[in-house]
Amino acid sequence: MARAEKVTAVAELKDRFESSNAAVLTEYRGLTVAQLKQLRISLGENAKFAVAKNTLSKIAANEAGVTSLDDLFQGPTAIAFVTGDVVEAAKGLRDFAKANPLLVIKGGVVDGKSMSPSEITTLADLESREVLLAKLAGALKAKQSQAAATFNALPTNMARLVEALRAKREETGGAEQPQDAAE
User: Fold this and answer.
1) Residue 181 falls within a domain, yes or no?
2) What is the pTM of this model?
3) Do 145 and 56 belong together in one domain?
4) Does a structural domain hold residue 179?
5) pLDDT tens sequence across 13-29
């Protein structure tokens, strides 16, 4: 590879590291081209799977400020750059790795935080962003309904209390009798 090509490759990888929400490093040794194509499809629209030289990838990551991945650039390494929903991409990688044990998740970085392979698998176990947002919205709506019911109950309870006091006064003959302090 000529020097100009290397500079261009590093610049492109650096741009991907900077513009991505996450980067997940994998080892792809033994996978066929057809399997890699299938993996790219399973990652969805929000992730790009790139095979690059370790030294160039390491230089690009360091230039982008991602130094926590340095130890992972060993052996044949491919990087999944995620620009959208990280959970969806993590699920795609996890499911593909289950079906094809030759794909090994080495680790990665999500929003600047270094993640181990087990943390990425745990991330894949989460529900998608849309589902979590829908659950949050439902919980907020339920809390608002409870608050509204409480506020609506206050005037009703106050009216019942006033009516009970009025009935008690009528029962006792009108005015309350003062009690002796000596008793």
Assistant:
1) no
2) 0.65
3) no
4) no
5) 999 988 888 899 999 88
